[in-house]
Design brief:
By secondary structure, the chain is α+β, with helices and mostly antiparallel strands. It has 11 helices and 21 strands.
Length: 472
Amino acid sequence: MSSRTPGLLPTTTRTLDRLLAAEQAACRLPSVVAGLVRDGELVWTGGRGRTGLSGEPTPDTQYRVGSITKSFVAAGVVRAVEDGLVDLEDRVGAHLPELTGGVGRVTVGQLLGQASGVQAETDGPWWERTPGGGWGSLVPLLGESALRHRPGTRFHYSNLGFGVLGELLGRVRGSSWHEVVDEQFLRPLGMARTSTRPQPPAAQGLAVHPWADLVLPEPEHDAGAMAPAGQLWSTVADLARWATVVAGTSPVLRRESVEAMRQPQSVGDTRGAAWSSAYGLGLQLWNDGGRRYAGHSGSMPGFVAMLRVDVETGDGVVAMTNSTSGFADLPVRLLRALADAEPHLPPEWAPREVPSDVLELVGPWYWGPTPLLVTAAPEAAATGGFELRGMLGRGRSSRFVREGEGRWRGLDDYYAGELLRPVRRADGSVGHLDLASFRLTRSPYDPDADVPGGVDGRGWTAPGAGPRTLGT
């Protein structure tokens, strides 16, 4: 079954339905549901298979979403940062004083970014398949022995770390992590079908026998203090609303906070390969040939889920199955199919106002002999700034936003956080740009500009190899 808005072509819907059906059959999934989000709306949903002994999946069927729960907890912590209750540089022990060493000395930002070095799982029984205890049962596990790596040095995924973050979130708000998530996100977004325990209709978690077409029910339980790592249940319709938060278009979280969550904190370093996956502040990040995606995957015994958003377009995909072994690359292929079949139109060009102090900066500049170009690009001009980029395939780039009178601060790339200041001549015209101690001039090594080290008085020359004799 599938549904679509009038905005999608029938051929697109047929392609998406076909991908879903093929994945369900090839991966032997008891059931699978998926949805695509565009411009903040759920534009397609599909379901295939049976959620238990009977019953077809719908956009309202609950599945356990596993570690997608972490993105909600992280958003709650980021909201606490917005409100001045927490700082990313705070030691965890400052908010959980019972943690005097070990995990207590890592920072909140390191835990959020999976760079804390904290062990991946709890000691003892398989926490994902056994009921969990309260916070007091975790505290003895969080001493020095819990640090598997020096904090801040490498990516190391830690479910245990998010158990700690859940407790921290509840502590700073005087509540519990799930009550905070409900108050700040679920209720404002209308996510009434997202809960910590299953509410019918809900899929039965199943394991599929690897060599026979048989299934085995997986247990469901309250994970206790580990619940912030993977407890939530949700639906396609609800997670489509959460995708708008990841896209940065929802009012429940500031745009700049979402951008911070999507900034890589630690990178999954695969030997011999460019980075393809990383972790932000509670969000997984993917780099597919330079195209960036953000979201989170999730798995618990009996379930696999995925939420992924194209950072550039805001298109998102949600997919869930009630199989421990899960699907393959279905979410990626659904998102690509939508982009290929119905690509976004480019924004319409129209004349617009450009501040006079930006207009006088546009055009070529030179960092020594390297040509750079300043443009009043729309995405930069919207913030009262401009974009600097290299020409001829060389040179450092960054967007700059206005910061006070006569100066701009870099937003990204090499010059992120650095200041740029136009330096004016006696007549008021701009002589050069001072950027992080570098001088950008209107011509290569302009002798009339203040170039550190000076410019050789002979200027640009083409010295010969000396006198030549006929025949040599």
